[in-house]
Amino acid sequence: MSLTLAYNIARGALASNAATASVVSRNLANAENPDASRKTALLVTDATGGVHVAGVANEVEAALLEQSLKSTSASSHSAEVAKVLQTLSAVVGDPELEGSPAALIGQFRSALQTAAASPHDTTSLQGVLSSAEALTESLNSAAELTTSTRRVAQDTIETAVGDLQSLLGAFSDLNREIVTGTALGRDVTDQLDRRNSLLRGIADLVDIRTQERSDGDMAIFLANGTVLFETSARSISFDGNAALLPGQPGSALRIDGVPQTDGESLGGKIGGLLVVRDELTLELGSQLDEIARGLIVATSESDQSASPSGPAQAGLFTYPGGPGLPASGSVAVGLASSISVNANANPALGGALERIRDGGISDPGDPRYVYNAGSLPGYAGRLNELIDGLSADQPFASSVSVSVTNGGVLAFATASAGWLEGERSTSSADSEQKRLLADKAAGAWQSEAGVNLDDELSALMALERSYQASTRLISAVNSMFDALLSAVR
Hints:
The protein is an alpha+beta fold.
């Protein structure tokens, strides 16, 4: 080996060391960045035996990144559902809560039992009226909470869709930079990190799958196969101002004009919000409407004449469609928000408390619906009938998720509370499990492809030894040149 060649090899080694040290420094700067992958200087040997840096590459763990994206979507989806169920359950789901419909039906029955023990006592009849008013207010509030939860979900979906559009726009710009830079042989590792960060943001909103192509290009698909990005972002639209009709699903998210209505399939935060808006709140609203219908039927008044011919009519509990009863077997949408205590039993509204005991609430002018025709103060027959009516079997709509074979409206309300609590418990456990899986998936990716301070410090020590070796070689070559020149003189 000539001295010139040895010198050139050593000089090339120093240049490679400097370039590699720069890469290590970048890694150290990104040590706290969860989206950064470890960068490696690509060293190649030339024809003379020297080395030089041919480029910089990212650590690639595509399978782990894909799993991390999938876990992020699942965690975000379940978290949205669990959060809403926690709120709903805290207000209307626990039968032990004094304000829940199930608990207030029990209190209403207790008030009726107290009144039946002393039907002449005006105070006990007032207790029945107060309990009935608290029950209708609870149903009205629960229905309003359900409706407002749907509206909040709708508004949040609109915001999330805007975020998705922004992320896809930024992804398009970065993807173009990466494709162009790769074709020109530039270092695009920082752009790849930023693109991975955008992918995590997109995965938080919807469940996605990715496909890498030539020159670093990437396509994004929804988990159901719908193209989200391929060369350019697909058109995404959502009408957040569309009216939310009671009992009906809201407006759909559209990608290239195709509606995406299945929240479970869509995944991510947006999918979870669609489940909340179009499934959970609609189901709970239907159950509340059935509780309201059950109360109206359970407290209805019938024709008491010797030859009854009049239809059953809404008594203590009524609604805007009264005095006729709401139809059984199907959900009367919006009934829980409109149920009220009949004014004919409320002295403050011109009614009479004694009608709770005697009947005739539905139509005070029609004697056929009066149970205590003699106005006997000790009459308890109607009060006992009201007590029995709360537990009397009646059909409930088969379209709701709650089913009871006996026990009447009280059993249905209790079963509805149990359904909501069960959904909340299951969703909370599922959310926690998926959060842990997402954390583990992100940790696994970071462990394999992320920056490790110990590794980088070890690399710096190796570079230091390489630098020392190169400088010793240059020093030796320099001494040989000096000796050679001295001999020539």
